[in-house]
Amino acid sequence: MAAVKQTGRFRMLRWLGDDRAAASARRRLLPEGRLAGPMPWIIAIMMFLTILAAALAMAMGQARGALGSALAGRVTIQIIDADPQARNVQTQTLDGRLRNIGWIAAVHVVPETELAEQLRPWLGGDPAEADLPIPALIDVDLASGVGGDRRAELSRIVKGVAPSARVQAHADFLSPLLSMLASLGWLSIAIVVLMVLATGAVVVLAARSAHATHRGTIETLHMMGATDVQIARLFQRRIALDALLGSLAGFTLAVPVLLLLAQRAGALDSGLIGAAALPPLAWPALALFPLGAVLVAAGAARFTVLRALGQTL
Amino acid sequence: MNSSSHSGLPQGGGPHGNIVQFENVGLRYGMGSETLSDVTFALAAGSFHFLTGASGAGKTSLLKLLYLAQRPSRGVIRLFGEDVVTLPRHRLPGFRRRIGVVFQDFRLVPHLSAYDNIALPLRVAGVEEAELDLPVREMLEWVGLGDRADARPATLSGGEQQRVAIARAVIGRPELLVADEPTGNVDPDMAVRLLDLFEALNRLGTTIVVATHDLHLLSRVRDAQMMRLDKGQLADPTGSLRYPPRPPAFSGQIGVAMPQGKG
Q1: Which of A85, A238, A244, B243 is most buried when burial is the number of CB atoms within 10 A of its CB?
Q2: Is A89 helix (H, G, I), strand (E, B) or coil?
Q3: A306: which residues sit within 8 A by CB, 6+ positions away?
Q4: Closest CA to B22 of B75, B96, B59, B81
Q5: pLDDT over 90 for what percent of chain B?
């Protein structure tokens, strides 16, 4: 039994050894020279920029989603009646009425002390003592899915109680910001797409150059009966390996830069910038980019070499 | 004499048929005049031929047509019984694996050792590494380069490179061996040894076509036929090329174990 196991193991080792020898022999059919050419370094730089652009796209998407969902349904009602008593009555009337409406999720009357605290840096001391009319504020969160028609209805209800009140949807004044975040996100995606195309173009040029350099060897292999696919596989393997090394280097450089940016953003303690943090799935998604680069490089190399070989006999 | 079809050319490519048939073949490079004109001949399987002619007579062009590096401008070429002029490109590798070629300029792969150059046809054919070591070593010994297995072509002399090229051409035991001046750079003793190797292969059934200027070689191979090219036209005064005789019965062994590839 032991002998049988040993024989089986020996066969397996021999098979593995033969496979390694065959792979090594296949690699030798084209001259070694990995990292000697510029392609891995170019791909490293492109991967570095691609990762940064992709991270920016994801962060912008995250920020847009977070701000949009948090603020899209929020409305602030300013009751600006100069008479404090009338202002107080209007505020309480509205508070009571709005709480009974089904499509309103929450009503929060901002306490005067909180308002005074927020205004202190500009007005100093207690604004009430300075006889300044401070508007009453009511934050209203509409139920999710509530559209513009409900906001109009809310305005009508508010105007019915406090004709001079202002109803301001947060989405209105945040829309330019959301629009800019969306633009930045799309710009980043466009950069990623351009980088992928540029990577493909670099590989096509490298494959053409390699094909021209090794034309003699390729003709000899052809005359011995090598198929186009056999020859293309040699280039494909070599270029894929170069792309893997280059893209891993680019990814490895990009990760600490992203971590540093995240740390700096966290130190700002800004709600807006904090919202632009990378989502949890971003890191695994970014880690797929080097793999994608290898696939793009291998595919472009195969296509280029097969096309060039197809023009010969 | 083989049987003839209505076209005057024998059909089929079996062991006793014709392995090569040319019918009114012409070859023109670009818009120039024809390098080969109205070349018509047939080679029996297992036969041995010398191709002679002055420089520029078209020997290398004829060999290129034989080893499928070129398609003719006109005419019909049949190899192993199939029309290779209209053969789809993707089927050419299968035919090329049945043909061994000794190029005039050797065409060794410069970054590969003598061993790896000789192993190339077997690797292309998918022979397992474990199976190709013995024949490659034996072939290296046979051409007298057993101690130069790891040498790159640039470090080999012209004669040594030629021997590597010949070993590479014959290691896969091709059905058709095409050699362009294979003894041009070797000393007379080595030339005789190489010719012995070709004869041994021929006895195993390989059809041999050797282009040469060396008239001494012609007399060394019994039953060899001569093809003479003159200004792109084939001289065949006896008609034996058009209707080749049956080859002699195969006999003898070559001292190299030839592995079978995966194809």
Answers
A1: A238
A2: helix
A3: A228, A229, A232
A4: B75
A5: 37
Residue with token string 């390729």: A218
Contact B101/B148 with Cβ under 8 angstroms? no
Helix boundaries (H) for chain A: 2-28, 39-71, 84-99, 112-123, 148-161, 170-213, 215-223, 228-268, 271-275, 282-310
Contacting residues of A for B119, CB less than 8 Å apart: 25
CA atoms within 13 A on the CB side of A159: 8
Average pLDDT for B247-252 = 51
The alpha helices in A100-169, defined as continuous H runs, are: 112-123, 148-161
Q: Does B84 touch chain A (CB under 8 A)?
A: no
Considering only the beta carbons, identify the residue of B89, B94, B96 that sits closest to A223: B96
Q: What is the pLDDT of residues A34-53, one digit of tens each?
A: 545 788 899 999 999 999 99
Return the amino acid letter for B2.
N
Percent of chain B that is helix, strand, coil (3-state, to 5): 30, 20, 45
Structure tokens given for B82 = 């199939």
Burial label, B39 (beta-carbon count in 10 A; 0-12, 13-18, 19+): buried
Q: What is the pLDDT of residues B143-199, one digit of tens each?
A: 889 999 999 999 998 888 988 998 999 898 899 999 998 887 778 887 887 888 888
Pair of tokens at residue B1: 């004499």
Spatial distance between the Cα atoms of A71 and B33, rounded to a whole number of angstroms: 83
Q: What is the pLDDT of residues A191-244, one digit of tens each?
A: 999 999 998 898 888 888 888 888 888 888 889 888 898 888 888 888 888 899
- Confirm whether pTM is higher than 0.90: no
Q: Report how far residue A151's alpha carbon sits from residue A75's, in angstroms, rounded to the nearest whole number.
A: 8
Cβ <8 Å between B120 and A217: no
The whole-angstrom distance between B95's CA and the closest CA on chain A is: 7
**Tokens matching residue B159:** 């004669």
pLDDT of residue B15: 43
